[in-house]
Amino acid sequence: MLSLYKVSGPSLYPILKNGDLVLVKKTKKIRSGDIAVIQAESNLAIVKKVEVSGDKIQIIRLNQDYGSKFEKNSFSKSDLIGKVLCRFKKNTKIWRLLEVIRH
Q1: DSSP state, residue 63
Q2: Contact 47, 3 (CB under 8 A)
Q3: pLDDT per residue over 43-99, tens digit each?
Q4: Is 83:29 a contact under the CB 8 Å cutoff?
Q5: CA distances in angstroms from 70 to 49, 64, 73, 93, listed in the order given
Q6: Residue 61, pLDDT score
Q7: I need a labelling partner for 21 at 20 to 30 A (CA). Which of 38, 51, 81, 84 fits?
Q8: What does the alpha-carbon distance between residue 103 and residue 82 come to, in Å, rounded to a whole number?
Q9: What secondary structure letter does DSSP report for 5?
Q10: Is the preceding omega at residue 14 within 30 degrees of 0, hence cis?
């Protein structure tokens, strides 16, 4: 199953920028260095680069000028929504089309 998520904030800059859309494959199979979507709180899914050790998932900080309140959290694979397959840059033609479809 594939889903679209919208990036919010600068924590993954320069890889992902605020407003970009990411295509996510629902899976529990990820590796260190992957960009993943994690269920951080009941209504909040976060897009982050991860470090994986067994069942534990840690967030890797990319933008040194911007921290995440989830950096020190340890997540489990049960919190994992999926792996980012590709991104669509904000305000491109495909991005605009996907935004219409997403709503």
Answers
A1: -
A2: no
A3: 899 999 999 999 999 999 888 888 778 888 899 999 999 999 999 999 999 999 999
A4: yes
A5: 12, 14, 5, 32
A6: 87
A7: 51
A8: 21
A9: E
A10: yes
